[in-house]
Amino acid sequence: MRLRHRQIVSIPSWCHCWSAYKAPQQDIENQQVRIGEVGQDLAVAQENEQKQYEDMKLRIKYMYENGDASFAEAILTATSYSDLVNKSEYVEKVHGYDRNKLMEYVQTKEEVANLKTELEHERYFNETAFGSRCSFRTSDKKMEP
């Protein structure tokens, strides 16, 4: 009789735990999909960051080896007023291009940092929220034989 009573008592607690497990299963799957998406975004951003870094290194090397076009050089080497205007426009465009590329690189580095933080947050949330939804604690209640 006591054995049967234990079986009846244990089934509802098992069913309750099963329903508690089944309900957030979709949430867990959605969270895992989100983690995968953020991971892919992070990988793409890191590839972009590396490519931009390599491009900047190449540009700096070129500037070092060949000299940087400066506005002062344009003024001093101009042969006419139109030559001065053309050279100054060229220098302005080159510096604008370099400045834009540097800003793109800074934005990409910020995006990588944000995605890393988001991925860590998603993983932490996944572990804490879904890590131990249903736990059987038999030490709290002792059943008599």
Describe this structure in words.
With 145 residues, the chain is mainly alpha-helical. It is built from 4 helices and no strands. α2 packs antiparallel against α4 and α3 packs antiparallel against α4. The longest helix is centred in the C-terminal third of the chain and has 50 residues. The termini are close together. The N terminus and C terminus are likely disordered.
Tag the structure with descriptive keywords.
rod-shaped, disordered N terminus, mainly alpha, 4 helices, 145 residues, 83% helix
Summary, kept brief:
This protein is mostly helical. The chain has four helices and no strands.
Question: What is this structure's SSE topology?
Answer:
Layout: H1 2-22, H2 25-66, H3 71-77, H4 81-130
Helix pairs in contact: 2-4, 3-4
